[in-house]
Amino acid sequence: MHVSESEYKVRLFENNYTRKICKSCKTPFWTKDKERDNCADIPCSDYDFLDMNISDLKLSVREARNLFLNFFKKHGHEVIPPKPVLARWRDDLYLTIASIVDFQPHVTSGLVPPPANPLVVSQPCIRLEDVDNVGVTFGRHLTTFEMGGHHAFNYPDKFVYWKDETVEYAKEFFTQELKIPEELLNFKESWWEGGGNAGPSFEVTVGGLELATLVFMQYEIRDGQYVPLKLKIVDTGYGIERIAWFTQKTPTSFHAIYGNMVYTFFKKLGQPPVNEEMLKVAAKLAGRIDTDHPETIKLHRKEVAKAVGEKYEEVDLELTRAARVFQVLDHTKTIAMMLADGLVPSSSGEGYLGRLLIRRALRTIKMLGSDTRLSELVLEQINYWAEDFPQLLKNKEYILDVIENEEEKFRETVNRASSIASSLVRKQEITTEDLIQLYDSQGIPPEFVAEELKKKGKEVQIPFNFYALVAKKHQTSPIKGDKEKARLPKDAVEFASKLPPTRKLYYEDQYLRTFEGKVVGVYKNYLVADRTVFYPEGGGQLGDKGVIIIGEEKYNVVDTQKVGDVVVHVLDREPKVSPGDSIKGEIDWQRRYRLMRHHTATHVVLAAAKKLLGDHVWQAGAEKSPEKARLDITHYKMLTPEEVKKLEDLANFVVNDRRPVKPIEMNRTEAEMKFGVSIYEGGVPNKATIRLLEIKDWDVESCGGTHVSNTSEIGAIKVINVEKIQDGVIRLEYVAGDMVSDYARKVEEKVNKVSEILGVDQSQLELRLQRFVEEKRRTEELLSGYRRKYVEYLLQNSSKEVFNGVQMMVLKGVDDQEVTKEVMRRFTLEPSKVAVNFYSINGRYVVEVATSNDLKVDGILENLRKLGGKGGGKGTYCNVSFVKLNESEVIDAIKQGVKRST
């Protein structure tokens, strides 16, 4: 987009600043330095700040964060707490990639007010698109970092501040707080886009390092067009870690961020320290690395070798080793942050991204030749950052347990690498897409594939940015909250969308069973009234059924759906009615009440699972029917029977404790600040005011369903099934209320049936089953012994003949598959052997043929099919059935079909 020069003229620049064009990148920038001819950003400048002696400040990350927050607090900004690194308030994004994400889309669109205005936050962020560059650029790229953001939201009727003040704040912070001479500050003109918004921006650079970006968000990107926003938003991003690095001037940013932990990691990974002078030279010149062109890495290392007077090969080896240690250092913090905020590694969604980083860290540890446990390194991060991020310590047990679990899975994956990689040997060309598909489906790092294929004489090219490509493919969500679409035909949706909102009596009194109202619209068998007690399907709860009475006619309501705020009654037939006519309606109360019990029980069970298993538990899906309810939760391993029992006990304690259940309507910003983003377990409603359901001292969650008013009404909760439905997701099925007795009745009937089959009274059932199992075990041992003897007998006494150097054994009437399988296996262990078995089953005649490894059954199978047989097989075994059978013809066909393997 072409941006007018006037967008970048601010009050500060009137004070002896000059607009220049960078001689290298041709980008305009503003500076007080009359001599400067470049924008002081990489690659136009090296990291000259490492040699600047401008103050005695040596800020840690914590000190840099506090300095930033306190500066803006002094200037009237309210400090707000950061959000989790998992963007669970967003439908379209898995990870929090910037501080403005905290306010998108509901605050930035003007739907709700911000929690404060102006405000300041230091938001931990995670970005994986540069994951392959971590360590290689000595700190320019990180997967996790803190973005210091001060934000002002300017409404048409309320101006806070805009460009002039934002740039002046930056100047004051850097000159007064960091003691940077103003002549060293550069404001580089730029343009920013993200999260569907855009606007002009300044990049604040000093000595090659970009310290902050000042964005003036004023457009929404809609269908490729820039549409002016109602709000004008100041969106700034100060690099907290970069500020620490700038003041400390350590060899790399990792030294500034992690301090002595850098040396701890080198030691734990079995690596001697890298020469710090070499690192500092490498870091200073790192701006010359263009990560889009991997060949610049080699050029950079040649320049380092020349500068330090070492051989290129030695420098390359040392910097590669250092980069790998830095990668592990960076990744372990990111992994800890993700898990602490509730990520569960899995094969999809945010869990996929977490597993990708875990496996990349494990792969890097392996490439360093270390056997250090990843959990040991993650524990170092937990202890180091516990004061800054208390959730790390709170969830330490969960984090370490997950890491141990993932390490075990990774070992299993690596053990499979050889056989899986072998399947690619015959491919003429192995593409990047092949490697990504193999990583996606099997979790095998491309380096291991390349290593295995190299043993077989095949070279594989791995793209430098492989993990970034994989992360990019999985980093956005396919609209996580797209669950409320009406299940109505398109024409019915169009009809309903033109009608006014329906008065929802089921929210005014969830115990109402009947209503009287007026018809607003009717189309085919779809009827809309001005009010209704019928709850429309949503939030995992089925729509109500019942009857609607129009005059003397009674119509069955077979379903209830909604389109926006319009409730649509789906009738069993077209009604004779017109808009304005009076109607009466009555829901199927028994069905509704069961749904209410199951829905409230779902909230109870979810909160119980969180309390029992940990805060990482998140609702991955739910459904409530009159018969039962199901809840899918994120959890990294199957629940034990003891855990299921504890879950039931916790849930039923709340039921018996008679906790009040009440709906609350609240501004979403207030709700988030008060209860956190866990209110969005069931989805993210796109409304300024959201409806919460509170179970006293137990759970608060956004929900639009119908519920009982006290947990005692649930009656009881019984878990009836627990299963792992996919990696990282456990399904719980349970019943509540009178459906518990219904379930108990069915179990009782099964017990009675078993008692009847075994011919004992229920009181003797357990004892009889124990005896039965023991008798079965003894019988199986006895049968196994007889089978062994029978196998030996058949091997010794079955008919055998030799033809064309091949020995054939023929069995007849052996229909014990265990015996047949073992006889054939034993007989065909030696070369040039064929075993045949004839038997009959269900009126058909079956021929089984097995051969030794040097023979094939292809020709045999072809000949048997010519005789009218039906069946299949390959390699050394086939099975063919006949309606009529001539054994001598079959034997001849087998002899003629025997072929040697090639």
TrEMBL record:
Cofactor requirement: Zn(2+)
EC number in record: 6.1.1.7
GO biological process: alanyl-tRNA aminoacylation
Keywords assigned by UniProt, alphabetized: Aminoacyl-tRNA synthetase, ATP-binding, Coiled coil, Cytoplasm, Ligase, Metal-binding, Nucleotide-binding, Protein biosynthesis, RNA-binding, tRNA-binding, Zinc
Subcellular location: Cytoplasm
Binding site for Zn(2+): 599, 603, 703, 707
Annotated GO CC locations: cytoplasm
EC top class, as a word: ligase
Domain notes from UniProt: Consists of three domains; the N-terminal catalytic domain, the editing domain and the C-terminal C-Ala domain. The editing domain removes incorrectly charged amino acids, while the C-Ala domain, along with tRNA(Ala), serves as a bridge to cooperatively bring together the editing and aminoacylation centers thus stimulating deacylation of misacylated tRNAs.
Protein name stated in the entry: Alanine--tRNA ligase
Gene: alaS
